Amino acid sequence: MRRPYDFASIEKKWLESWDDRRAWSAPRTPTRPKRYVLEMFPYPSGETHMGHVENYTIGDSIARFLKMRGYDVLHPMGFDAFGLPAENAAIRHGIHPRDWTYANIERFVASYKRLAFSYDWERSFNTCDPEYYRWNQWLFLRLYERGLAYRKGAKVNWCPSCRTVLANEQVHGGVCWRCGSTPVVRDLEQWFFRTTAYAQRLLDDMADLQWGDAVLTQQRNWIGRSEGAVVNFAIVETGDVVPVYTTRPDTLYGVSFFVFAPEHPVAHQLAMRAGKTSNYEQFVDEIRRQSEVERMSMASQRRAFALEARAINPLNGEEVPVFASDYVLMEYGTGAVMAVPAHDQRDFEFARQYDLPLRVVVQDRDYLDPQEMTEAFEGSGVMVNSGPFDGLDSEPGKRAVIELLEREGSGQGEVQYRLRDWLVSRQRYWGTPIPIVHCETCGTVPLPESELPLVLPDVVDFQPAEGADSPLATATEWLEVACPGCGRQARRETDTMDTFVDSSWYFLKFCDAHNDRAPFDPALVDAWMPVDQYTGGIEHAVMHLIYARFITKVLHDMGMVSATEPFRRLMNHGQITKDGRAMSKSLGNIVDPGEVLDRYGTDALRVFILFIGPPEMDYDWPAEGAEAVWGAYKFVERVWRLVTENSAALTDPSPPAGDSELRRTVHRHLATITSDFDRYAFNTAIARMMEMQGALSKAAAGAPAGELREGVEILLQCLAPVAPFITEELWESIGGQGSIHDRPWPEADPELSRVQQVTMVVQVDSKVRDRIEVDPSISEQEAVAAALASDRVQNLLAGRAPVQVVARPPRLVNVLTR
Questions:
Q1: Please, which residues bridge with residue 416 across strands?
Q2: What is the maximum span of the chain, computed from C-alpha positions, in angstroms?
């Protein structure tokens, strides 16, 4: 008698069972191959939504499949728990960020367990736990010792809404990555990590990464390696020698003016010399109010200040006028540029705006007239108007110019990078305190390791000041401390660390989650690292991923880890949107998984999420809401009916025999499903499972018990990584041994799964003349012979020999007679 499909009681039963026997713990057996499967861990900001369900269902299905394939699988979960949302909630609702965060974490854990994510919860931690961020502070001190953490005054991106600085990577399209506000530039003393010291290694090591081209391209562009030359220009009026960096030394003869960033100290001196100090300071103040994006925009009108000075081109001795302009940034290159308007678009626009001359020094096939040019020619070509270098192509011309500069001592070849050091200071409360003390006598003093963790104090006012002071500056008792060096009164650092520090090494901590003597045991890390499969959104292509790669390389150099890269294989899943926009509480377009789970159960939702398309595809949640999952639910219910309506046959121990069409169908589908899982093509794998279920249901009444049981067992094992509850329940009901999730993945019988015959099309002069059933492994010679033996082909040939036969076995042979 068929039992009703009561998914709620089934889920409750198996959640308790899995918890009781610690089903997803991850001991490491040295003799077994391993797979470390990880999803980018979540920020617990409010409620779980469908975007979370997608990311973690993909990762969980991969982990379950690999466990069934015989691997030791580490699949951990924790929470990226520091950050602005908790602090903003504290400001809005008068609740401590700690209370808000831990309450959200409890809800997330309950949701993730309900969704049957197979996490080793014994390894879980939260980055706001002092037991974790203690090791952030330890890492900061190690970087400080190695000269990789330093403090300096810098122009920074200040978000007026978040009231904190942003790293360059956190300004997307000219706005704050978190809140969308336009940053302003400020001068602040800030802490940095020296990511630039690893720029070339970050580039070189990408060769072995199994990542998507889009992410790799973004990383290469952000690191921005360029080969060029540093060229020394002398200022006539002062004798100052100002270096500039150019990737186009072949255009040096085309320099027609020279431009400083407004903040450049030499530009200030030249303005003073010309008696224009006040006007210049006003000019600089106006430009400082512009964002970096505005200054670099190609559409902007350029602001300029003539400095009444001349710069000498070291190649030809020509003197060119000197300006300061907003389109040159102090933070890039040397803060000065040699302007070649015929061959650089920004220089071209500046020259046209201020009626400055253009000189073409690289010609393409078409003659370039500087008077008629409507845009710069930035390509390569033949050097002209370039003295001894006339006639050289650009690439050998670059090398020849660099050699001359180096011989004459007026420049040298150099490699530079777009990448800037990672700005890690944040003027907010809810983050890792920086373990530094500022002393008037000793200067900057690192906190002794014995005093870690430096725990956040309780403060009442989490609202940061309008300027740059962190809320920690108001915690007087915590702030004032004896200097570790001299014992005199000193002050703690009041900035906290960027929360991306937390996620730059968390994957290592999962390998040894609760070690309280060290961040981790290197042997335990080496047993699991690197992460074999990492899953998350592409939005972190130039933030989290670069930072994690940098920290991994630093720890490798310290002898802490053997891996030089953290993530071997990366999957960037698509985004689940609502009404074409990313799901957001503020937009009111969150789709709550709870409603779907209550109506259709976890297994139906997981099937739906994996069936909607390839993992990398975006999906807009349909207007019918929860009812969209109805089709997936019906499939799950059909599997339930197949098993429960045939319980007598499915508990019959008779072995399968023969090569019936049912067995061949099951094994052919199994071979395809296995291949699809290996490629993470879950949608097509589920489609094959649906076909397998249909074939089994259709044949159930007349199939021998052994054949039916074999087919159902294979179907349940294939479905187990996708729908863990129903498969565990049905496996038990047919007397399956142990947990289905501990069973090995079924192997397709090569004879049964082999396609018996395929249809080979035979053409004569590209027109179809016959169709022949052939073995799929037919050779080219055999295919040609079969085609020529066709009566229809022989009639058309009428005794003539073909001019050519093109064979594409086993699908096509084309006999050509002319």
A1: 226
A2: 109
Instruction: Identify the CA nearest to 190 among candidates 566, 529, 470, 591.
Output: 470
Cβ within 8 Å of residue 594, ≥6 positions away: 111
Contact 260, 266 (CB under 8 A): yes
Alpha-carbon gap, residue 262 to 604, rounded angstroms: 61
Give pLDDT tens digits for 533-585. 999 988 888 889 999 999 999 999 999 999 999 999 999 998 888 888 877 66
pTM over 0.90: no
The rounded radius of gyration (Å) of the Cα atoms in the chain is 34
How many angstroms separate the CA atoms of 481 and 786, rounded? 92
How far is Cα 534 from Cα 129, in angstroms, rounded to an integer?
A: 24
CA atoms within 13 A on the CB side of 801: 2
Which ranges in 612-681 belong to alpha helices (H)? 630-644, 647-650, 661-678
- Residue-by-residue DSSP string for 194-231: -GGGGHHHHHHGGGG-B--HHHHHHHHHHH--EEEEEE
Model pLDDT for residues 703-734, shown as the tens digit of each residue: 999 999 999 999 999 999 999 999 999 999 99
Return the DSSP state at 569: B
Helix/strand/coil percent split, the chain, to 5: 40, 20, 40
Read off the amino acid at residue 326: D
Find out whether 284 and 265 touch, Cβ atoms under 8 Å.
no
Q: Are 97 and 87 in contact (CB under 8 A)?
A: yes
Tokens (6 digits) for 527: 């047993």
What φ, ψ does residue 247 adopt, rounded to 5°?
-90, 0
Distance CA 258, CA 242 (A): 10
**For 614-648, how does the pLDDT look when each residue is reduced to its tens digit (9 = 90+)?**
999 999 888 888 889 999 999 999 999 999 999 98
Consecutive H or E run containing 38: strand 34-39
> How many whole angstroms separate alpha carbon 305 and alpha carbon 260?
10
